[in-house]
Amino acid sequence: MSSSSIPFNFAEWPPSLSPEQQTTLIQKATTRALATGLLYLPPGYPLESPPPQAAIHAPLSLFPAPFSRESFEFAQEIQSLYNVLYSHIAMDTEFLDEIMGAEKGVGRVDDFIGELWKGWKVLRDSNSVPQPLHLGLFRSDYLYHLPPEGEAFLKQVEFNTISVSFGCLSQRIAELHRQAPTLPLHLMLSTSYFNSSPHLKLENLPKNDTIAGLAKGIAAGHAAYVSNGGSPSSKILFVVQAGERNVFDQRWLEYELLEKHSIHSIRQTFEELITSSSVDTSSSSLKITPTDSPNESIEISVVYYRAGYMPHEYPSQEYYSTRFKLESSRAIKCPTIPLQLAGGKKIQEVLGRKGLVERFLPGVPQSQVDRLRKTFMDMWGLDEDSRGAVGDVTSTSTTDSASPSPSAPPPTSSESFGTQRARAEHATLVLKPQREGGGNNVYKSDIPAFLDGLPAHEREAWIAMRLIEVPQGLGGWLIRAGSLDYGGSSDKSRAERAVKAEVVSELGIFGWALFGAGKVQGEEEVGWLVRTKGKDSNEGGVATGFSVLDSVLLV
């Protein structure tokens, strides 16, 4: 009997191990992670430091996370449609002005979104956007929805359009659980997981080539820039955060661009770019002065943001002005400001309203649109002031999506209907602001008190989302990030770094798109990521310390 025909019980995962087997797997997993670049810089590493002299392995899972084969393949297939959808949203200026702008939309009450939108509008109004092309590296995140009644299906958590992380490390963790041609001492071939489960077969552990795929997207942007008159020797600018611990996830992309595409890169922070960047007044070329070569001027083909998605990264107007300066150049931005705005949670909520997906996907068969809409979860804005404005986005476009939940209260107070509904149904909800990076959401029992303190005028910046009902009883072994505590090197201390817990696993699918002037020039689905967290943790951002990197077991 093949492993694919053997019934899978989520509540019986992971397989049992003896203490000795557990120690062996932990040792093999952590040493392989160190050997293959599944790394972080250690906590407290000085910002003004010499080249790194130490690194620790990233937090990781000992066993891969089970996902339905059908659901996994569906998520891969639908990514191209998502790539196209968000490309068209980013090109619809009128829509973004209405939903995210500082005159009509979210930007009126969210200062960060408002500043970005206002800077973009000034550039538009002064004809200072010389580059029509946008480049997006995307990640669509999902949880497996398994309600007590109804159909089990993948539901989208969010769609990310800026600084999508862990693409490179996700490939490394997949190789750890599966195999890699350059270092075959991986868990599957070296131990067969001690034959602990018939499902742990190579055929159930999919390959993941995210590094090559993401680099291909950036290289496509570079090629487009050069073909339109840019310098063949131009470079990719990585805009990075000071003190970035997740630097190796970025470095693998740099290495791939150099070794497979012969494209050089330069890394700078916003603070450095304040003085090092300039835009040529005649050609609109973006020029950067490297910190190690003050007499050199480097032309930039693609600005790739691994920073710039949180308000604290713009501590003064100088930082916003620097962002707008980069936006005003003919370098291709990944992402542009409109594409960053398109990734807002409010956009995700509004897409659930009847007919809006179809607006951005003209010519796409309704059956395909319905498949995409099936990944939507019930969402609404806290500022919605009527039952008709609060949509049930779990229905397809053939159903009236404006029908409210039966438990929604009648509009009897001065609060908006959306806020009243969030109070009444808080036990099944999460509230989300227009932020990336983790640690920003409000969950369940914390919601009523949060709403008590939220000024009415700020509600427009928040959306309520029905919590996805994940499989119950699923377990995992979570290995904490490495440590430089050399006193804890015994087998006992290694075992204590592994925690067996009931877990939730989130699947992310990567894609890229190059688009502009109303057309998508190229797009692809390029790989996947799994992050697993303890079930009592509400957030899922690996870099924020709430979860571990994982890979897929197809069941």
From TrEMBL:
Q: Which domain of life is it from?
A: Eukaryota
Question: Which major enzyme category is it?
Answer: ligase
This protein's UniProt keywords: ATP-binding, Glutathione biosynthesis, Ligase, Magnesium, Metal-binding, Nucleotide-binding
Q: Which residues bind Mg(2+)?
A: E158, N160, E436
Q: Which reaction does it catalyse?
A: gamma-L-glutamyl-L-cysteine + glycine + ATP = glutathione + ADP + phosphate + H(+)
| Entry EC no(s) | 6.3.2.3
Q: How is the cofactor bound?
A: Binds 1 Mg(2+) ion per subunit.
Q: Which GO terms describe its molecular function?
A: ATP binding; glutathione binding; glutathione synthase activity; magnesium ion binding
Obligatory cofactor(s): Mg(2+)
**Protein name, please?**
Glutathione synthetase
Q: Which organism is it from?
A: Ephemerocybe angulata
What are the top taxonomic ranks of the organism? Answer: Eukaryota, Fungi, Dikarya, Basidiomycota, Agaricomycotina
